[in-house]
Specification:
Strand content: 5-15%
Helix content: 40-55%
Number of domains: 4
Structural class: alpha+beta
Number of strands: 26
Length: about 900
């Protein structure tokens, strides 16, 4: 038959034939007319062929509308009957709902976290119109738009393709005080068009305008975030117009952001927004917002403007701005270089997110894991439904004998499955809600290397997206575990099934599918157990790694004197007083300070010159890595007296720094083992010298050799590091971390230390007080997230698989009670019957283990980059996972086996 005839007949077959007999006479006439035209198709002209197609589609639509009441009646009838059947079997219903709740709840919880970190758009108007602007072809600046402020102004004032353009920086710590109370808050510098470009209106007062971002003699203004406004001022609208001091500079509060707005950097929620023109008053000279390439430039495209069109127009404006910056006297080479500059547009609907870069791979892995957990849960429920369908064979046979169609019965059974899925989905949603706080705590505990200094703000609400995801997953799960049992249940031979003695007819054959599902569950569970074991052991190796310092009983806290306008020698004098006062506190064994602290990326990199050593071509230059460009140079850490004693670092030769290593003494340094090996080989480095350059301290003498210690990352190799005393090189520090080794719990001394600091200067805020142990745990946030959740889901999968195994074997034992009675009556011992069931258990488990072990080896290659200290084929992990699986599965099989061995032969022989 021709394709168009197939299409027309298919339209007629979409409505069941049984329903057609109940339709009105007009529909029957329409059917006869359609059949007549089909027979004469080849003799019809084009007009009549189109008419036939049109009328066929119209007739089908009319058919849908002619019987709405009948369809609604049948739907409600199916629902009522489904509810009665679920209530009739409360044990089965509870088991199915619990399995689905665990599977769907795990998926919902991980999806809510994935949505918050990876998928959610900015809470602004039409976020799809937002783009980031980056200048390509310019010098590479890490995490920067590479646009100068002059070029930004030119683009803002002359473009015809954008409805808004703004710039903003990373959040930074700011000292804030009002009414004499000082604290550290997160401040973000933004241009005047920031809020208008994003389409954000103030919850109270107003937001910035371009006039607010101009350098004038007027007092600068500030906009508070809703959360800070609520926390500090209790949502009091009278705060608008008041003066607040940031970094010893007065600002006028003009408004507050709406509650859902957190800025344009996902995961970072500044407390206060300040105009970029106030950067000179907020940031030190070397970090001023407008002095170098702007960190972020965000634009909103005009409606109807394509990205390619906007890119071409902005590229032309960029080249004009660059020509204006360098002047008219240009060499041909410089002109050609400027012509190669172009503007790149990148989607900004989700904003910028360091969390997206950090947790993208782990969250995708966890989504795959919970997907497997859901498959195991669906297999569990499918097994339960297969068992129930076998028990309902006679009921289904009677329905078929009375004229019910197979399609009608499948629809009824699917309705019951969907009811189970929806109930399980609702319970899973509650479970996800209870677990969302735990997930957020695990993610928030990790260190964010990109937005260091900004507070992490992330929420995982169960919003419409999560609700829609749960509903879709529930419906798909209901179809997945309900379709096969419904299909198998309605494949009956009526005559044998209706006989009274047909109790065992096809039961064993029909329940092979249940055993296949159990073997699949074991395989999936073993795969998840192996993965969880690899991650857990990897985390354990990281935790037990020798870090080169003693993490116990050390308190860390940070200060930033530049927030209250300390400079140069004032900072050194302040730190001396702080060290003296804190050292006198009872319970403090020693105290020192470091540039940023231990294992926190502290320090900087700088090139050096070592007499007698010839550097390689790539040394002290830029090295391209997978993460970006890195400077391949030694690591410099500025520390205070007794730093190594306080940190518990071992000095192998030489001495520690002391008060005598001040600005008047000769320049000295302590180097680590990696530094000594790299530059001096096996020679003793004590007394050797190296040159830091005229602008970086000059010639330095090595006075000590210290054991390697992790300073940047636990995973990475220890960089070659040299330590210098801060008294000889105070510099312009943005912040400094103090370390205090105590006799007991370090956190109990925070109050005493705070009082001593305020005794020196009451306006100097102290922040990020935590223990060194907590700092180490922070650095393992990603590994802990994956290890914790994969272990949890692996154990969940194991329990679900063993529950499925228990259910299958229990059903098998109940079906074979008569057989067991005969065996016992003929002389079989209870141990023999016990072994029959356990043998079946071991057969199913071993099949699953063989498949699961093969799958684990294949999947291990995908996670090898996330492991530390072991390979994906680690035999210890594989052996432990198999041992756990066999042990738990044996217990699940032993319970029904023991029940079978205790069967009374006389009772079993009468069992029907």
């Amino acid at each position: 038959m021709r394709p168009h005839l197939w299409f027309i007949n298919f339209i007629g077959l979409l409505v069941p034939r049984r329903l057609r007999t109940d339709w009105r006479q007009e529909w029957e006439a329409e059917l006869r007319y359609r059949e007549m035209l089909l027979e004469e198709w080849d003799r019809l002209d084009g007009h009549h062929k189109l008419e036939l197609l049109r009328r066929s589609l119209g007739a089908f639509w009319d058919a849908l509308l002619l019987q709405p009441s009948r369809w609604e009646d049948e739907m409600f009838q199916d629902l009522r009957y489904g509810v009665r059947m679920l209530l009739k079997n409360p044990g089965l219903t509870a088991m199915a709902v619990l399995s689905l709740a665990l599977g769907i709840g795990a998926n919902t919880a991980i999806f809510s976290l994935t949505d918050a970190v990876l998928l959610r758009m900015l809470p602004v108007k039409h976020p799809e119109q937002l783009v980031f602007l980056e200048q390509s072809g310019a010098q590479e600046y890490k995490r920067s738009s590479k646009l100068s402020y002059a070029a930004f102004e030119h683009l803002r004032d002359h473009n015809q393709v954008l409805s808004g353009l703004c710039s903003f920086s990373y959040a930074t710590r700011v000292s804030a005080s009002i009414g004499g109370q000082a604290e550290v808050v997160e401040g973000q510098l933004v241009s005047g068009g920031f809020f208008s470009t994003l389409g954000v209106e103030a919850a109270a007062g107003r937001t910035f305008t371009e006039e607010d971002d101009k350098e004038s003699g007027n007092q600068p203004v500030a906009v508070l975030s809703y959360n800070y406004w609520k926390r500090r001022f209790g949502n009091n609208p009278a705060v608008v117009g008041q003066t607040m001091v940031f970094n010893n500079a007065p600002f006028t509060i003009i408004g507050m952001t709406p509650p859902e707005f957190f800025g344009a950097i996902a995961g970072s929620a500044p407390d206060v927004f300040l105009p970029s023109a106030a950067g000179d008053q907020i940031l030190p000279r070397r970090q001023r917002h407008r002095s170098g390439p702007l960190p972020f430039v965000l634009a909103r495209l005009k409606p109807g403007v394509a990205e390619s069109q906007a890119g071409a127009a902005l590229t032309l404006l960029l080249q004009q701005a660059l020509l204006a910056e360098v002047g008219t006297q240009l060499s041909p080479e410089k002109q050609q270089a400027i012509q190669k500059q172009n503007m790149e547009l990148k989607p900004a609907s989700q904003g910028f997110s360091a969390l997206r870069q950090q947790y993208s791979e782990p969250l995708r892995l966890l989504m795959a894991v919970v997907g497997l957990v859901l498959l195991i849960a669906c297999a569990n429920v499918a097994n339960l439904l297969l068992a129930r369908a076998t028990a309902r064979r006679k009921e289904i046979a009677v329905r078929l004998a009375l004229g019910a169609s197979r399609l009608r019965l499948i629809r009824q059974l699917l309705t019951e499955s969907l009811l189970l899925a929806m109930i399980g989905g609702g319970a899973g949603l509650l479970l996800a809600y209870w677990c969302s706080g735990l997930l957020l705590a695990v993610v928030s505990s990790g260190r964010n290397p990109v937005t260091a200094g900004a507070s992490l703000s992330l929420s995982v609400p169960l919003d419409n997206r999560v609700l829609a995801f749960t509903a879709i997953v529930s419906m798909l799960a209901g179809i997945l575990f309900g379709l096969a049992p419904a299909w198998r249940a309605t494949r009956l031979e009526l005559a044998p099934t209706l006989k009274d003695n047909a109790r065992d007819l096809g039961g064993s054959r029909r329940f092979r599918w249940g055993k296949i599902l159990v073997a699949a569950q074991v395989a999936l569970s073993l795969t998840l157990l192996v993965g969880a074991g690899l991650f857990a052991r990897s985390l354990g190796k990281l935790k037990s790694l020798d870090l080169g310092f003693k993490r116990e009983n050390v308190l860390l806290f940070s200060v930033d004197p530049q927030l209250i306008r300390y400079q140069g020698a004032q900072i050194a004098g302040l730190y001396k007083q702080m060290l003296e006062r804190i050292a006198a506190i009872p319970g403090v064994h020693s105290v020192s300070l470091g540039r940023q602290g231990l294992l926190n990326g502290g320090g900087t990199q700088g090139s050096i010159t070592v007499p007698g050593y010839t550097p390689s071509p790539e040394e002290n230059g830029i090295t391209q890595t997978r993460e970006g460009a890195e400077w391949n140079a030694p690591w410099l850490c500025q520390v205070g007296p007794r730093f190594f004693e306080t940190a518990g670092m071992t000095i192998l030769r030489g001495r520690d720094f002391g008060p005598q290593d001040n600005e008047t003494a000769r320049k000295v340094a302590v180097v680590n083992e990696a530094f000594a090996r790299y530059y001096f080989g096996s020679t003793d480095p004590i007394g050797k010298r190296f040159d830091r350059g005229q602008n970086d301290g000059g010639e330095v003498e090595i006075i000590g050799l210290v054991k390697d210690a992790k300073s940047v990352s636990i995973r990475e190799q220890t960089p070659r590091t040299f330590y210098v005393p801060f008294l000889q090189d105070p510099g312009s520090w943005r912040e400094t971390t103090f370390q205090a080794r105590t006799a007991g719990d370090p956190l109990k001394l925070v109050g005493a230390i705070r009082r001593e600091v305020q005794g020196i200067d009451q306006n100097l805020p102290l922040f990020r007080a935590r223990t060194l142990e907590a700092q180490v745990d922070e650095s393992l946030g990603q590994e802990r997230l994956v290890a914790t959740l994969s272990s949890l889901f692996g154990l969940l999968a194991l329990l679900l698989a063993c529950a499925g195994l228990y259910g299958v074997l229990s059903y098998s034992v109940s079906r074979r009670t008569h057989e067991m009675g005969i065996r016992l009556a003929l002389g079989a011992q209870p141990g023999d019957v016990l072994w029959i069931v356990l043998r079946e258990t071991f057969a199913l488990v071993m099949i699953g283990i063989v498949i699961g072990a093969s799958a684990s080896l294949a999947a291990g290659r995908l996670i090898s980059s996330m492991l530390f200290g072991l390979t994906p084929t680690d035999p210890v992990t594989m052996s432990l996972a198999i041992l756990v699986m066999i042990s738990v599965a044996t217990l699940a099989g032993y319970l029904p086996a023991r029940r079978a061995a205790r069967v009374d032969p006389m009772v079993a022989l009468r069992y029907e």
